[in-house]
Amino acid sequence: MRTIEAEVLIHVVKRLCIQANRNLPEDVRVRIHECREQETWPVARDILDKLVENFELASSRAMPICQDTGMACVFIETGNEVFIKGDLNAAVNEGVRQGYGEGFLRASVVSDPLRRINTGDNTPAMVYVDFVHGDKLAITVAPKGFGSENMSRIKMLRPSDELAGVIDFVLTAINEAGPNPCPPLVVGVGIGGTFDKAALIAKKALLRPLGSRNSDPYYADLEALLLEKINALGIGPQGFGGRTTALAVAVETLPTHIAGLPCAININCHVTRHATEVL
Ligand code: SF4
Fold this sequence. Notes:
The protein is of the alpha/beta class.
């Protein structure tokens, strides 16, 4: 059994909060460049150029990519041979507190959803823990902006809605979202499980490297089809038209009940931020 002091996580989470907010992952950068080359609508090309300029400036000047520095979603995968000594949640939240403070990142979290007092340090984080095999611990910080989170949707479809119902639900959600989630988007789709698990796998789908495909060819084809149909909607970068409404679609699935077909869509903007360290 390998022991990891929870205190170590404070420094890791702090680093990742700052890194994720300043540096767009390489796969997202590459995909934006690719889409820029494929765009035929001049306004869309111009906007994609501005997005590139923005994330390059953020990186070179050590500034956040967007004013909405997001709610800190922290995904932890801990091996079954790892013993975490100390308070994991407290360490993660201290890391977020220090990262958002030292990185001059906007505090965007209220302590209560209705009384709405800003906590002042972007805590608490949303923490997700998965147990895996091995003696490693992986931490991913994915700051989630709410312009796109607010456009996310979940629906308990009927089994008889079948594939067509899923496709219709996704396209309707993206169409209704329009320019609000700051396209071009990354779209995570969770199908199956329960109400809550469908939403969780949709969120985790946003962590997949852009350009990767579901390992099941049936769902890989669905990802390609959804991406094509979403880009045919013509919303375009920032809603000014064009073929680049989404950079990628990632579908994740779970077994589900005979009476149900849960479907969740977690939308992310072009600032699909995440940073990972493995201990
Ligand atoms: S949706 Fe994304 S790009 Fe738009 S304000 Fe929020 S974090 Fe920024």
